[in-house]
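Quick one: structure for this chain?
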Amino acid sequence: MLLNQLEYTLMNNPVRAAMQRRVDAQRLVRLGGRMRGGAALELGCGRGVGAELILDVFGAERVDAFDLDRRMITRAQSRLRGRHATVRLWIADVTLIPVPSATYDAVFDFGILHHVPDWRRALAEVARVLKPGGRFYAMEVLQAVIVHPLVRWLLTHPQVDRFDEPELTAALRGAGLRPVASQTFSRAFAWVVADRQAAASHAWTRRAVRKAERLCACRDR
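Got it. Here's what it folds into:
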């Protein structure tokens, strides 16, 4: 789901960047540690702050990142123009990630899942593109915030089937991701780390893999 104008503005300001750097990234590092190089994917890259953190704070060698909003990709390309050797950007939907299975050592979510109507399918895609033993780092906004009357009035979020931390943890397990550590703040925000199990399983895996492979083939032409 695309952001409305207010949330687009909120996501593209120095305060949000500072929160990602000083709070979200630091908590996720404490919970899940740094990467030992390797390839990472960022879901919903916004203006590129997350990709910088994945390289500089988490220690990835290279980062692939995508967003549903072309405006965000344009901003990220401008911000990351000096990192073209280590960052690749494109437009995509988190419920159908156009890369082969078992591609990444880590996947990062800086507050994207709560924007996705079918967030469980997005988690299954995360599990698919992670290598066995790969790690998922997520900072998420929980149901108590999403359904709050003021938030509903100001911002545009899906309202059906939202999650709190226990529901998110259960869905991670259902997608084949083993929760490693988590932290919550006032039932409003959660920071979660989970590892890809050796054999993630979900009913639509084969169909999703075939479709993702077709998308990959189209992108490479």
